[in-house]
Amino acid sequence: MVGDMSSDFKLDAVKGHDSEDPEVGSLNGVHTILPERRATTLSDRLFRGSRAGHGEIVSIPNEKRGHGSAKKSGPLLSGTAYCISSCSMILLNKVVLSSYNFNAGVSLMFYQNLISSVIVVLLGFSGVVTLEKLNWKLVRVWIPVNIIFIGMLVSGMYSLKYVNIAMVTILKNVTNILTAIGELYLFRKHQSQKVWTAMFLMIISAISSGITDISFDTLGYAWQISNCILTASYSLTLRRVMDEAKKYTRSGSLNEVSMVLLNNLLSLPFAAFLIIMFDEWEYIISVDVIKLPMFWVIATASGLLGLAISFTSMWFLHQTGPTTYSLVGSLNKIPISLAGLVLFKVPLSLPNLFSILFGLFAGIFFAKAKMS
């Protein structure tokens, strides 16, 4: 999972019926924009259920104060957890693919998805999360989405190997543009003038950033453009398939955790086929890097973080709502990009730095335009 390549990737990636910023990256599963929810508080329950004979409400001040404190800290904690897991996922994948010079992106994806699948299944069996029972009809409906999902992850892996994190972040803005065009033609969803202006600014920033990129790599840019196309296709296809998939579930709905499991579990046989077809298994057997314990620690951590992005994004959404989630996701690109430039000592020119900053703020402007 490539996090924002994650975040934006596996789970960076994808949104449900009202996509605000379809980056999936996250890698691990599904970023689904949910309606704003407010948990029933203790005081709400007391308000409904504990009335005195003359209609007076029995209140417990200490309980209310306690809940008020939790309500204030909830968005902060969930937002911090989401940002940390998202940033860490991208940086760790970059370390595995570039610093360790690991040339088997499909195998890394297979390992990360395997970790996620095992953990989600264990959580389901223990009753921590609710999982839909899988059946052949549901799997058959979901396979087209999963194929695009795999292509999205693989292309993201290889783009991250050849392109620096800041440029990947800017180029991923192209996904928003492709998604908006797809929404216009497939769903007749029209965007406001502000949104189209923001997308125009993102196009300028992507072109100028590529032109001024000192470490320009043609293969890496080709992988990233492919990733943008696949990510947009994934978001658009998911909207259609989700409604169809619900017909084949016992509950009549498909929750986010079940979608995470479907994506990760179904990707395993396809990934295994690609590993054999590309002869990655021969590379894995012979490469020395897999003998390093620290390599496995980092690879495993990236898999765990991919799953963490799935759950922290859901937690953050429930604590706040799609508006805050979208804006924080855009703001989150700034520290990720700057950290990538500093930690990996990317050669940088002043025009390229300006283009990157311009692209980051164009993404923020896009998020604000979508909210209005």
TrEMBL record:
Record-level GO cellular component terms: membrane
Taxonomic superkingdom: Eukaryota
Membrane found in the keyword field: yes
Keyword set, alphabetical order: Membrane, Transmembrane, Transmembrane helix
Ranges annotated as spanning the membrane: 109-129, 141-159, 165-186, 195-215, 221-238, 259-278, 294-317, 324-344, 350-367
Subcellular location: Membrane
Keyword Transmembrane helix found: yes
Name this protein carries in UniProt: GDP-mannose transporter GONST2 isoform X2
Organism of derivation: Prunus yedoensis var. nudiflora
